[in-house]
Amino acid sequence: MSILLAAADVLRCFSSTRHDVTVTDLVALLDMPKSNASRLLRTMRDAGLLETVGDSKRYRPSVLLHQAGQVYRFSASLIDRADAVVARVSAEIGHTGYISVRQGTDIIGVTAHPGRHALRVVTAIGDRIAAFASSTGRALLARLPDDEIRRLYAGGFTPPSATAPQGFDELFARLAAARARGYAESEDEAVRGVGAISVAVGDPVSGDEVALCISFPAAMASAAERAAIITSLGQGAAEIAAITKDPRFIPLSSSIAE
Amino acid sequence: MSILLAAADVLRCFSSTRHDVTVTDLVALLDMPKSNASRLLRTMRDAGLLETVGDSKRYRPSVLLHQAGQVYRFSASLIDRADAVVARVSAEIGHTGYISVRQGTDIIGVTAHPGRHALRVVTAIGDRIAAFASSTGRALLARLPDDEIRRLYAGGFTPPSATAPQGFDELFARLAAARARGYAESEDEAVRGVGAISVAVGDPVSGDEVALCISFPAAMASAAERAAIITSLGQGAAEIAAITKDPRFIPLSSSIAE
DNA sequence: CAAAAAGTTCCATTAAATGGAACTTAAGTT
DNA sequence: AACTTAAGTTCCATTTAATGGAACTTTTTG
After folding, report:
1. Domain residue limits, chain A
2. Which 115-134 residues of chain B touch chain A by CB within 8 A?
């Protein structure tokens, strides 16, 4: 096994709630001999992938990773386009907007636009959430055929709350609904009291697929407002789909029911 | 030599002008046997550090790097604070603002705020420029004692243009001026027709140091506007320095001459 | 100051990285 | 379509690095 896999595992330890790691953290998180953890962190620092925080024993990602990460952000022009749409819709509606991508069964936020409303929803960039239990995830999963989803979730899944899909039947039903309507939604699922509406769009040339999402306090969003979000996101995504000639794009159904 | 060093070298190949690399690119850029380049890229992809663009042979940074890079951005709260100042000044003045950090003799842009003016200056995030030949770089170098700078540039340096410091004497003179005034400036140096004003601030706890910079078309900036930029940046940086108790912070000199 | 926790170094063993060459695949040329 | 060249991959023996247990050092805590 290459040390690169271990290094990537280290990077996966970082999140909005874990800005740095220590040798002991790695031992616990990755179940690794501490001799190994010690050397791995030092080697990653020597390579320039990590840096030590001040002169403490804490390690955090380096500016090199930030730089390379920015390249990802800007190279995937699909993300840029989608981000522009979400920025516009977020500014219009006042709620928080996100762009997310899928990695296997995880969804990762790539960009965010905080809303103006007092009760604004903030999920952090770079955090992973379960794809099947979020509107962004289901918007992206809905682009796949059911058998591919079954393969993806060969190990099954554990619903994080009572409102998340409890099994395959429920997941497929929700995906079918998303496909029929052209958007996915969630309420009270990953985070209590929070609703979200998402659409997905892809670029067949680069293979990228992103979800555009507007998130809001569930109690605060009227039916009219939800309809406005759906229309704006759907139209924006449709414009992108037209540019990329996305063959899997699911346009909004003409009758926006529910 | 660990493969991590090679992997880090690969990441350093990416920039705003090189969004993806191929086996041949690596052979040329890193002077590496192509058998090696081929396996390295594949291994990095398998580890999740890179991803292939569509089904081509091109590799680009993955979302994992973007995620870890975001952690860097937000973990270094100094960057956040400095970014807020630059965002405000950029919005006030209308010119482009940057936050940059130093890595050895290089300066790397971390965040940017495009200006409103028609002639706006855009340098890309994540690109490396020479520290000695930029206002951001000299603002940061001015925080070091001269002998440390001499050690840093033990191998000498090559001026990129006639307006950049041509040797140590000139560099030290400019750094002395920056220390005396509390800000660094450049004009026509890295980019023709572009001027910039920078101040630096650090956090002794984390060891972070950043430069706050406003960049503008040289012909477009009046003396009054420059003075306004200097005052705004200087005051913003001073507030941050007060919070972090930065012992090396150089406040604006009371008489803003030149 | 003692005890515990955290981190580093050492060592033999195991596994991965290396680079040259042969091979395969893709792209351009007549 | 066959030819030529460029680009990428796989194979191999050799060299080098990674591994994990234990001993050791440093730092933190009561």
Report:
1. 3-67, 76-244
2. 124-126
In chain A, the residue whose alpha carbon lies closest to the alpha carbon of B203 is A54
Is a pLDDT exceeding 70 seen at residue A242? yes
May I ask the CATH class of domain B76-244? alpha beta
| Tokens encoding A223 | 């039916």
Q: Does A33 touch chain B (CB under 8 A)?
A: no
For chain D, which bases have at least one atom within 7 A of a protein Cβ? 7-11, 16-23
Q: Which CATH architecture has domain A3-67?
A: Orthogonal Bundle (1.10)
Interval A76-129: pLDDT, tens: 778 878 988 898 898 888 888 899 999 889 998 888 887 777 555 556 666 788
Task: Characterize B38-74 residue by residue with b for buried, 16 or more Cβ atoms within 10 angstroms of its Cβ, and e for exposed.
Answer: bebbebbbebbbbbbbeeeebbbbbbbbbbbbbbbbe
Structure tokens at B31: 């002077």
Q: In what order do the strands lie in the sheet with A128-130?
A: A128-130, A106-113, A96-103, A208-217, A194-203, A184-187
Task: Report DSSP letters for B36-66, one per residue.
Answer: HHHHHHHHHHHHTSEEESTTSS-EEE-HHHH
Which nucleotides of chain C have an atom under 7 angstroms from any protein CB? 5-10, 15-22
Candidates B194, B211, B193, B197; CA nearest to B256 is: B197
